[in-house]
Amino acid sequence: xxxxxRPVSLMAPHLRATTIGSFALVFLGAFEALAVTxxxxxxxxxxxGAAYYALAFSGTLAASVVGVVVAGRxxxxxxxxxxxxxxxxxxxxGLIVAGSASTIEVFVVGRLLQGFGSGAxxxxxxxxxxxxxxxxxxxxxxxxxxxxxxxxxxxxxxxxGWVAEQISWHWVFLGVAVLVLIAAALMLPAIxxxxxxxxxxxxxxxxxxxxxxxxxxxGPATSIASAESAEAPESSESAESAGATGSAAQAQPExxxxxxxxxxxxxxxxxxxxxxxxxxxxxxxxLDWTVAVVALxxxxxxxxxxxxxxxxxxxxxxxxxxxxxxxxxxxxxxAEIYMPLMLHExxxxxxxxxxxxxxxxxxxxxxxxxxxxxxGERFGSTAxxxxxxxxxxxxxxxxLLDALLALGPIVAAAxxxxxxxxxxxxxxxxxxxxxxxxxxxxxxxxxxxxxIFDAASSATSIAIAGLLFALVGGTDSPFxxxxxxxxxxxxxxxxxxxxxxxxxxxxxx
Length: 509
Prior knowledge:
This protein is mainly α. 76% of the residues lie in helices and 0% in strands. The relative contact order is 0.14.
C-alpha cells in the first residue's frame, strides 16, 4: 500500500480507521475533561474528598505537562506509534483507577495518570497526522479534531451529570474506558505501518505540541484556533508582527528545546511544585502557606527556561503573548471548577443542570472563536485579544458577585456566557500572534511554551484557589467561593495590561 499517495478524503481506505479512531480519542479526552468538572462535587461528597477537590484538577494539568514533553521527545526519536500506545494504556488505566476508586487518594492517582496519558496522547496523535496524512488534508483533520471538542462541550456536562445522578459517577470514567479501548483498536492496524524515520520526524513533531495541549483541557476554541490559524489569511497586524519576528522571537538554547532531556526534567520539577502547592492545605498553618510560596517560586524558576526570554516580565511581543495565554487560562479554569460546586452545594442544582451552565460557556466559546475569525482582516490581533480579556474579566466578576450576593444560577449562567465568549475571542488571537512571532528555528519551542505555560499556570492557579477555599472555610462557608473567584479576578485584571503588550514594539495598538 502506498502511504504517500494523496487521497481526496479523510475517509480514504487507508486513512478511514485512523481518522475515526483519532477523532474518537480526541472526543473521549474532551468528554472526560469536561465531564469531571460536572461530576466532581458528587465524587467529593461520596469519597469525603473536599480537601483534595482542587488537586483532582491541578494535579491532572500538572501531569499533562510532563506527558506533553515526554511524548514529544519520544515521538521525535522513535516515531509516534509506541508513545501513542503507551499513552493510551496509561490514560485507560487512569480511567479505571478513578472509576473504581473507593478513596479520594486513589481517585487522585487515577486523575494523575489520566493527565499524563491525555497530554501524551494528543502530542502523539498530531505526530501521526504529520506522518500519515498528506499536507493537503491537514486542515481537514485538524478541523475534525476541533469538531471533536465542540460536540462533547455541548453534551458532555449534562450527560455526565445525568449518569452520575441516575447510575453512578463511577461510570462516567468506566464508560469512557470501554470506548477508549474501541478507539485504540480501530487505529492500531493503520498506525503500525508508520515508521520512526523520515523528514517529518525532525520537523513536525515539536510543532504538534500546541494543538495537542488544546485537546487536553483548554476547550473547543483552542483546537478551532489551530485550524483557523492555518487557514485564515494573514491580517495586516500579522504581517507587521512577522516583520518584527527577527527581534522579538529569540532563538532558544538547544538543550532546553521542546522534547529535550533537560526540558523533561524541568517539566517534572514544575509538576512536582504544583502538586506541593495543592497538597499544602493538608499541612498545619503557617506551614501550609510557607510550603506553597516556596513551591510557587520553584515552579517559576523551573518554568523559566521552557519559556521565551522575559515572559514572566511581560516583555513586549512574544513574551507577553505567552504570558497572556497563561494568565487568561489560569483565571478562567480556576473559576470554572468552583462554579458547578457552588451551584450544586449552595443553590441545590442537580449536577445535570449545573453541567448545562458549563455548556453555555462552551457554546459561547465556540461562537467567540468563529466571530473573531471573521473579524480577522479588519481588526488587529492585539486589539481583539484585549477585548476578549475584558470579556473574561466581566464574566468572572459576575461569578464573584454571585458568590457574595447569592444572585442565583441565571446570573451565573449569563456571566459564564460572557466569559466563554472572551476565551473564544482571545485564545485564537494568542495562537495567531505566537505564529507571527515565530521562525522555523523556534516554532517548536514557542508552541511548546504556549502549551506548557497554559497547563502549568492553570494548575498553579487552581492549586492556590484550593488553598484559599480551604482557608476561608470550604463548602461550609459562602465566602469560600468568593475567595476562589477573587483570585481569578485578580489574575484576569493583571492580564489586561499584558494584552496591550502583545503588540510588537512600535506597533499601533
